[in-house]
Each structure stands twice: as C-alpha cells, then as structure tokens.
Amino acid sequence: MADRYVAETINYERFPGLREDILRFEASVPEARPILDLGGGSGRDALFLAQLGRRVIFGDLVAEFCVIAKGAGLPAVHLDAVALPFGDGTFGGVLCSGVLLHVPRTCLGAALSEIARVLTEDGMAWISMKEGHGTEWKLDGYIAGERLVNYYTVPGISDTCEDVGLAVVGEWHGTARPWFSLAARRVTGT
C-alpha cells in the first residue's frame, strides 16, 4: 500500500497549486527553525523543503511511510498528531498538507493544540483541508482500503485554531476545489 501511495503522490503534477502553497509556507517560517511535515505521506513536501535548504523532520502515523522517508534520507518519526513526541517550541513551522481531515473530528482540537504547543512563539502552521460538511469513508484509486475524510468550513477550522492559540493570518482556495489552506501563527504567550 505505502509504495503505491508514494508512487502516485510523490510529484506535484497531480496537485495543481500545491507547490506554490508549499513555497508560500516556507517563506513564512524563520530560516533558523526546523519544520515538521506532519502526516508527510509520500515525503514529497518534506523532500521539496529539504531541497530548498530547510531542516525538515518527517512525521507520520503510518510506519511504512516513515521507513520510505528514512530511505530517501529524511529524518523520520513515527507519530500520532494528537500526542506529538517533541518538546514545546521545537519547530518554526508545521506543515499539515491534507492530513488533519483524516483525524477523527473528536480529536481535531487536540491535534491543533499539539501543533500550537510544538511551534515556537510566532511559529507558522500551514493547514490544508477539504471544504464542505460531513464525514465519509472514502476509497481512493491509490490507497488500499477505506480512509476517513472529514469536510470542514473555513470559519469552523479558524475558530478551532483560535481556541488553541493559533491566529489565522491567511486563507487560500486552491485551483483544485474543494481544497483550502490556512496559515496560522502561534499567538505569543500561549
């Protein structure tokens, strides 16, 4: 399963506008601080950020993805978004590209709280989600088995971010609807 997913998602061609989103995120993170690619999947974004000269830690719940990332030369950590194994203020940026929509709704606040916790003061989170309402179990052509997909609205995610100390400072809607991305800074003093 992991090899097929990586082969299908390692390039940006299937994801119009995503490369530009990653560049926008990268430019917002202080150069001296490392970036966590949370739920990095194929490693595409972590590899791209590393090619730009950034220190990147790849993290994913799927152990096979971590093995593949390590094989590609990335430092990789097997982790769960609701209990990140890093100290407070470790990262200048946390990239969450299409990952939090797979976290159960009841755990979204905990995951966002963990993201805020591991960010430096004024650190940046980049969160991309599918816009809409509801939840479904979805079969994709390149994923074996079903996976959870939660749809969210911009105001709903923005409110949850604010609740955990992340101030939304930017919003973008991709050319591949129904995706949207939010840039959220850790609020100083949280």
Structure description:
The model has no long low-confidence stretch (mean pLDDT 89). This protein is globular. It has helices spanning 2-9, 18-28, 44-51, 63-71, 108-118, 154-163; strands spanning 35-38, 56-60, 76-78, 91-97, 119-130, 135-139, 146-150, 166-173, 179-186. It has a single domain (2-186), classed as Vaccinia Virus protein VP39 (Rossmann fold, 3-Layer(aba) Sandwich). Helices cover 30% and strands 30% of the residues. The chain is built from six helices and nine strands, in the order ααβαβαββαβββαββ. By secondary structure, the chain is of the alpha/beta class.
The overall strand count is 9
Low-confidence stretches: none
Domain tally: 1
H-E string? HHEHEHEEHEEEHEE
What does the largest sheet look like? 7 strands, mixed
Q: Compute the average pLDDT.
A: 89
Intertermini distance: 39 Å
CATH-defined architecture: 3-Layer(aba) Sandwich
User: How large is the radius of gyration?
Assistant: 15 Å
User: Biggest sheet, strands in spatial order?
Assistant: 3-2-1-4-5-9-8
Assign the CATH superfamily: Vaccinia Virus protein VP39
CATH level-3 fold name: Rossmann fold
Q: Based on helices, strands and strand pairing, what is the structural class?
A: alpha/beta
SS summary, helix count = 6
Helix content: 25-40%
Percent of residues in beta strands: 25-35%
Assign an overall shape: globular
CATH class assignment: Alpha Beta
